[in-house]
Amino acid sequence: MKTMILIGGILLSTATHQALAEEQCGKVTIADMNWSSASLIANVDRFILEHGYGCEAELIPGDTMPTSTSMVEKGEPDIAPEIWSNSVKELIERGVSDKRLAIAGHSLSDGGEEGFWVPQYMVDKDPSLKTIEGIIAKVKTFKHPEDPDRGAFYGCPAGWGCQLSAENLYRALKLSDAGFDLIDPGSGAGLSGSIARAYERGKPWFGYYWAPTAVLGKYKMAKVDFGSGIDVDHFRDCISKVECADPKVTMYPSALVQTVTTTDFAEKSTQAFAYLGKRSLTNAQMNGLLAWMEDNQADGNIAAEYFLMNHEDTWLKWVPADVGAKVKAAIEAL
């Protein structure tokens, strides 16, 4: 007995419905962004769209600004799996307003995350270190590597966008008056290395970091609560600016991380677009995957295969049962 589905007032068998879905999908181009989390997602999308939806999926190189601009102006690529929308906010909004772009959903369900952190093992021993008041009260615990009379706060590397926000919040929290010196780690590797060294030795550490990252997948860190809540307007208008004369304390707002497609793709490939709307990972999930990628020196393609093989409980929720069965068969054939 055939299972029937009502589509647009017409009864179709599930087989016919799937055939139509595959026919409407056709060729799909996916931006393979030049950072690990985005490349992982792009490769997962390619595999699921190809094997589950019958798309002719192709990865093409991408980056935030050029990919977003090309999608608005040229209608290609079809899909940008991980766009940090705050950095191209006006362009994305214009593209949606002009009906050139469509927002499928959230690549990271809880958004990109920034903050000041301490190792979880410190909080386990002293829960007060989960708060900025507790950190300041124990400033001598966080010894400066070159000045035993001062505490160390590791900031964002010079020249990075986060340098401004970290320094402005360092001023807003009056950490210098509390006895902390702001340390420039010199590079991203220098910053992550300082966390790794502290963790391997069980030593104190206090500083800025962000997620999703391999570092927060490998080393369990606790975000310090400023007790201020989030003032999005002040963060945007002052904390993130070069000229911020009177910085106020605020927690970092989460960064919007979205999957964006062209409107043509969204209208033509409705089944595939629906999948993209459900495909989302938490920061904790992505942190763990990035740590696996780093430990195994895996690229996005290898990491996608690892994810699909080992996290079936996650991705099966993104697709209908018949699509899931096709993807599982393709995985077993690898």
Automatic annotation (TrEMBL):
Superkingdom, according to UniProt?
Bacteria
Q: Which UniProt keywords apply?
A: Signal
Q: Where is the ABC-type glycine betaine transport system substrate-binding domain?
A: 27-308
Q: Which SUPFAM superfamilies match?
A: Periplasmic binding protein-like II
Q: State the signal peptide span.
A: 1-21
- Pfam families this protein is in? OpuAC
Q: Name one GO cellular component term.
A: ATP-binding cassette (ABC) transporter complex
Which GO-annotated molecular functions does the record name? transmembrane transporter activity
Its protein name is: ABC transporter substrate-binding protein
